[in-house]
Design a protein that fits this description.
The protein is an alpha/beta fold and 503 residues long. The chain is built from 18 helices and twelve strands.
Length: 503
């Protein structure tokens, strides 16, 4: 199961949390990281506390939401306001609502433990997802009314059902906050590696602090400290360390080539403790791949297969052609109006043509509406910046709303681009960035797109540092692309457009 779908459904079942008789750990700071040490009064061998993993928490949230939808539909049937015959149509409504809700909840981060653990954030996200679910459901009902049953026999009935659904969803999430998020705490991890690997991975460890408590470092040596770091012990005692320090997961930062380290990892794994590489946790929490940390593990950025699979690629290309063709016909009047506005606003052509590097390094001419002065690059290529003074008056409107990208539908139609994928870059910048940023050319393993994972998760990039940040999201998409991830990106793009967050 792909990692984005894993955000809703877990792939590795583990035991849920149990109550502990061990006192809470004490927090301290080491190199800017919050490190938790075991309370000295804790009893060795005491019952360990098993905290729910991120996937288990997402599963609990999904079950809670599914139950809330089922309860709300049942109440509507009992009070006679369902608007349909419950026997043949009830399962259809439930299945369709649950499917739409699952996608909408993923789009609005309802299953992100960081969002779900805060009352205001989870209520706001759930309300947005529920409103989106209603709109999509009614749109489908209007298109195929014979197949999709109505919701509520009247406006009052619909309002009553909506109130019940929101109340039950909210109640389930309050229970999650009280019984899981607050009472269960974050997962405790022990990092296996060396002091050097700890320092190298300090940024990654800080990034996962929202969901994980770092107990300390397990090294090959038995010293209790190393340059101020909290060392839990040698890897030979990893099994005992896991029990004494209530470790939920063992995270490998650097196993080296020592076979005894690998042997030591078997004991906690056999006892049900998850053993994972640090980069895997970083991917799960942040939705990006830490390229600078992975130099010795270059294979970790490669997709699981060269393409998305023959069926996936065929369906994706068919949808690209159909979507681009229909969109070009529908927006033709808008294209004409925008082209006229660009032409009248400033000297120069309405359509801007620029060479970009695409799939497997092939170069093509990308089209877009001109949003800058005709002499914008007289001094040579340069990054666009926030509030770029080279923009024209019409360009100040087109760039935030992304209307300048509409001509790229033609690039999609002829096969140069896809609707969804990493943004194509100029060859001069590809050469520059490829020399300084590791794995930069891996993004060319898939067809470039009009929108992508980096576009919906990160602001517009205007520097080499921004390019590195965007690359981490692009590589995540290259590695984990799927129909579900494409759908999430497409829906998140709508939110980006509504916020007019382009430049």
């Amino acid at each position: 199961m792909l990692r984005v779908f894993h955000s809703v459904f877990p792939t590795v079942p583990t035991a849920f949390a149990r109550r502990s008789r061990v006192r809470a750990p004490v927090a301290s700071r080491v190199m800017g990281l919050r490190v938790f040490t075991r309370n000295s009064s804790a009893t060795p061998g005491a019952t360990t506390r098993r905290r729910a993993s991120s996937s288990e928490r997402r599963l609990l949230l999904f079950i809670s939401d599914a139950t809330a939808i089922a309860i709300s539909l049942s109440v509507a049937v009992v009070y006679g306001i369902a608007g349909y015959d419950p026997l043949p149509n009830g399962p259809i409504s439930f299945a369709l609502l649950l499917a739409i809700w699952t996608v909408s909840a993923a789009v609005f981060d309802c299953y992100d433990p960081r969002v779900a653990g805060r009352a205001w954030d989870t209520f706001r996200a759930a309300n947005r997802a529920f409103l989106t679910t209603l709109l999509v459901y009614f749109a489908l009902h209007l298109v195929i009314p014979g197949l999709i049953p109505p919701l509520g026999g009247s406006f009052a009935g619909l309002a009553f059902w909506s109130a019940i659904a929101l109340l039950t969803i909210s109640a389930g999430r309050i229970m999650y906050i009280k019984l899981v998020a607050e009472a269960n705490g974050r997962r405790r991890i022990a990092v296996v590696g060396t002091p050097a690997s700890w320092r190298a991975a300090s940024d990654l460890l800080r990034a996962i602090e929202s969901e994980y408590e770092v107990a300390g470092l397990v090294t090959r040596d038995s010293d209790g400290s190393a340059d101020g770091l909290t060392v839990l012990g040698p890897h030979q005692e990893l099994g005992q360390i896991v029990r004494d320090h209530q470790i939920d997961e063992v995270i490998v930062a650097d196993a080296g080539e020592d076979p005894t380290t690998m042997d030591a990892l078997i004991a906690p794994y056999e006892s049900g403790v998850l053993v994972r590489h640090l980069s895997d946790i970083f991917e799960e929490v942040s939705g990006r791949i830490p390229v600078r940390y992975l130099r010795p593990h270059w294979f970790a950025v490669l997709p699981r297969r060269p393409g998305g699979g023959r069926t996936y690629d065929l369906v994706r290309r068919s949808l690209d052609v159909a979507s681009a063709g229909v969109a070009l016909v529908l927006v033709a009047p808008l294209l004409a109006v925008v082209a006229l506005a660009v032409r009248l606003d400033s000297p120069g052509p309405a359509i801007f043509r620029q060479e970009r590097e695409g799939y497997r390094g092939r170069r093509f001419t990308m089209l877009k509406f001109r949003t800058m002065r005709a002499d914008a690059e007289n001094g040579g290529p340069r990054w666009a910046s926030r509030g770029d003074p080279r923009r024209t008056r019409v360009g100040r409107l087109l760039r935030p709303t992304r209307l300048d990208e509409l001509p790229q539908l033609w690039n999609v139609l002829v096969g140069d681009m896809s609707i969804i994928g990493p943004r194509p870059e100029r060859p001069c910048f590809v050469t520059q960035l490829g020399q300084t940023i590791p794995f930069y050319r891996v993004r060319s393993l898939v067809r470039p797109g009009i929108t992508g994972w980096a576009q919906v998760r990160f602001a517009y990039g205007g520097s080499e540092e921004d390019a590195l940040e965007k690359l981490q999201y692009d590589l995540y998409y290259v590695k984990h692309r799927s129909a579900f991830l494409d759908l999430v990106i497409a829906l998140k793009t709508v939110g980006v457009l509504l916020h007019a967050s382009g430049r």
